[in-house]
Amino acid sequence: MGTFAISGCATGIGAATRKRFEADGHRVIGIDLRDVEIAADLSTAEGREQAIAETFEACGGRLDGTVLCAGLGGHIGNNAMVASVNFFGVADLLDGFFPALQKGEDPSAVVMCSNSAQLVPDAGTLPLVKAMLARDEPEARRIADDECTGQLVYMLSKNAVGTDVRRRSLAWGDAGVRINAVAPGPIQTPLLQGGLDTPGIGDAIREFKVPVGRWGRPEEIAEVVAFLMGPHGGFVHGSIWYVDGGADALTRADRF
Ligand code: NAD
Q1: pLDDT (0 to 100) of residue 243
Q2: Which residue has its alpha carbon closest to ligand 1 atom 24?
Q3: Could you tell me where the beta strands, DSSP code E, fall in 14-90?
Q4: In this structure, which residue's CA is closest to atom 39 in ligand 1?
Q5: Ligand 1 in reach of 14 Cβ (< 6 A)
Q6: Residue 111: pLDDT band by 50, 70, 90 thresholds?
Q7: Which of 69, 70, 189, 199 is 20 to 30 A off residue 11, Cα-Cα?
């Protein structure tokens, strides 16, 4: 059985993923603000370094996989923090865990993107995405606070995460480590509830059309993650899997 580091597993999708992996007999090293093995704040560079160092200690420098779920919704009222957790909290952990993953058995990584990643036209040309991909955290935080709404920061952070995952496909493939992203639609978790409870955002979420006629459950995302991480997903690499009840197909049927 393998050893997997999962961020953001105190609640929501991360918690469901943890449960799914533990049901298969795997060992999970959880990383979150609280209620897990490694309590760390991924919104700061120090917190991310601590999370990486403590994970290495816990796994003996060898990981079979990582699932990065920690994230914040655009409704929280702290745009810089959303930028830091959603992008740098993923990219830094991927960099940090890479040496340990290379020593794992059939190693792979899955990160949480979002179906909203493609809702902003030409997102890759926008300054926030460019600052994130250039790993300029102070500039990304400044742009997020000064020039963006919270929802825009959320969507652009997920766009940057998707690009970062895809850009890793050659180097990670060469090293024998698969990496993919899952792009969920609305999933019933505390993050979604926070948006629903926020005036001006809740109605937009409620009006967002999902072709299958319902929102998703965290367990439905965990099941896809388990497939992508396991042997049956062995040829899936550098991909972004939309698990969103058809919402992405509805918004851009002819672009894929
Ligand atoms: P959630 O709020 O249930 O879980 C997010 C977890 O991240 C929490 O346990 C939280 O404590 C942790 N976290 C937040 N800030 C942190 C920090 N500074 N340091 C460490 N941990 C921190 O939300 P969820 O819906 O399960 O979201 C999981 C991922 O899926 C997120 O990246 C989110 O953006 C993405 N996502 C969710 C939805 C949805 O509708 N729920 C849709 C698309 C994408």
Answers
A1: 98
A2: 12
A3: 27-32, 38-39, 65-68
A4: 187
A5: yes
A6: very high
A7: 199
Q: Which domain holds residue 134?
A: 3-241
The Å distance, Cα 174 to ligand 1 centre, comes to 30
Q: Is 151 helix (H, G, I), strand (E, B) or coil?
A: helix
CB distance 38 to 31 below 8 Å: yes
Q: Which residues pair with 216 in a beta bridge?
A: 187
* Cβ-proximal residues to 167 (8 Å cutoff; 6+ apart), any chain: 133
pLDDT (tens digit per residue) in 87-100: 999 999 999 999 99
Q: Within a domain: residue 246?
A: no
Q: What is the Å distance from ligand 1's center to 216 Cα?
A: 15
Is 252 contained in some domain?
A: no
- How many domains, the chain? 1
Residue 253 lies in a domain: no
| Active site (annotated) includes residue 154 | yes
Q: What is the CATH number of the domain that holds 208?
A: 3.40.50.720
Residue 247 belongs to a domain? no
Number of neighbours of residue 237 by Cβ within 10 angstroms = 18
Question: How far away, in angstroms, is 59 Cα from ligand 1 center?
Answer: 23
Beta-strand runs (E) in 93-150: 108-112
Q: How far is the CA of 54 from the centre of ligand 1 (A)?
A: 21
| Per-residue confidence band for 205, with pLDDT thresholds at 50, 70 and 90 | very high
Catalytic pick from 4, 88, 97, 154? 154
Q: Measured from the CA of 7, which atom of ligand 1 is nearest?
A: 21
Nearest-atom index, ligand 1, CA of 184: 43
Half-sphere exposure of 156 (CA within 13 A, CB side): 29
Give nearest CA residue, ligand 1 atom 8.
Answer: 8
